[in-house]
Amino acid sequence: MAATWYQVTCDVPALLSETVADFLSELSGCGVCTENRDVDSFSPDDIPELATASITCYFTLPCQIEQRLAQITSFLATLPGYTPVVPPQVSLLGEEDWATSWKAHFKPLAIGQRLLITPSWETGGQDEGRAVIVLDPGMAFGTGGHETTRLCLECLESLLVPPPFSIKTMKILDLGTGSGILAIAAAKLGALQIDAVDIDPQAVIVAEENCVLNNVAEQISCSTTPLEQLGDGYRIILANILAEELVRMAPGIVSRMAPGGSLILSGILAEREELVRNGFDPFPLSFEESLAAGEWRCLHYRRLP
C-alpha cells in the first residue's frame, strides 16, 4: 500500500493539550486525535487526571515534513511548562491505516440528554435510553469527541427535544457533513428531510455508509451539491466549518433559511468569534447564544420573519 499521509504524534503536558491540538489542527489543515482514556464510565468525575496527553495530526504527501517538524518543535519550545521527553514521533500511513488509526482514539460517548455516539467496532454497550449513533469515521471528520461537534449536537438536541415545530415537515441542512454525524443525529431525533453536503467526495461516501449503518438513509440525502445550488426553506442549518469559510458563505447560508429557522455555526475558535459575529451582523438574524467548550465556540442564530 502506497503511503499517503505523515502521522505526527506529540506527547505534551495535559494542561497544554488543547493549545497544542489547536496549533496542530491549523498547521496540518486536518483534524487531530487526542488520546482518550480507556474508562468504563460517562462521568467526568470518574476519569483520572493524566499528566500527559498524546496529540496526533496528519499531513498529506507530498509534504516537507522536516519543515513541519521544525515548526512544531519551535512552537512547543515557546510553551510555558513544556519540557520535551521525546521529540515528535513520525510515521507513514496509507488510507486504510488512517481509517484504522481512529479506532485507538474513538470510544463510546454520551452527548447531551438524548444521544450516545459509539464506534461501529464497539458492541454490547448500554444505551442508557439514548438514541444511539453508530459511526465509522473512516477518512471523514466527526466522531462527537471534538468540542466543535459536541457543541453542535447539544444545540441541535435543544432545538429538537421538545420540538418547537413539527420535526416531520421541517427541512434540515448539514453543511460540511464530514462523517454525517450531525445529519444522523437529526434523523435519530425524528427529522425526516435532511440534506448532508460536503465538498469532499470521500466524506460523502463515508456519510452515506454511516447513514446506512444507522438505518436513516431514507431520511438523509448526501451529496457534493454546492451551497449555491441548494434550495431554500431550511428550518435548521448546521455548519461546522472554519470561521473564515463561515463568513465567506454567510450570504448563501442565510438566504436558504426559512423565516424563524435556526442557524448553528461551529468550528470557531474563541479568538475568531468576533470575526464570525461581525460577518453575520448585516443579515436579518437574531443572535440567540454563544456556547463554549474550551477554546471553541458555537453560535446560535434565528432568522427574522
Task: Describe this protein's structure.
This protein has 305 residues and is of the alpha/beta class. The protein has helices at 17-28, 65-77, 95-101, 147-160, 181-188, 201-213, 243-255, 273-280; strands at 5-13, 33-34, 52-60, 89-93, 109-111, 115-119, 131-135, 171-175, 193-197, 220-223, 234-240, 257-269, 285-293, 296-303. The strands form three sheets. The chain has a seven-stranded mixed beta sheet with strand order 10-9-8-11-12-14-13, sandwiched between helices. A hairpin with a 2-residue loop joins β13 (285-293) and β14. α4 (147-160) packs parallel to α5 and α7 runs parallel beside α8. The protein is globular. The termini are far apart. Residues 37-48 have low confidence and may be disordered.
Largest sheet: 7 strands, mixed
Distance between the termini: 55 Å
Strand content: 25-35%
Strand order in space, largest sheet: 10-9-8-11-12-14-13
- Supply the number of helical segments: 8
Cα-atom Rg, whole angstroms?
Answer: 19 Å
DSSP, total strands: 14
Secondary structure category: alpha/beta
Strand and helix order: EHEEHEHEEEHEHEHEEHEHEE
Coarse shape: globular
Low-confidence stretches: 37-48
Binned, the helix content reads 25-40%
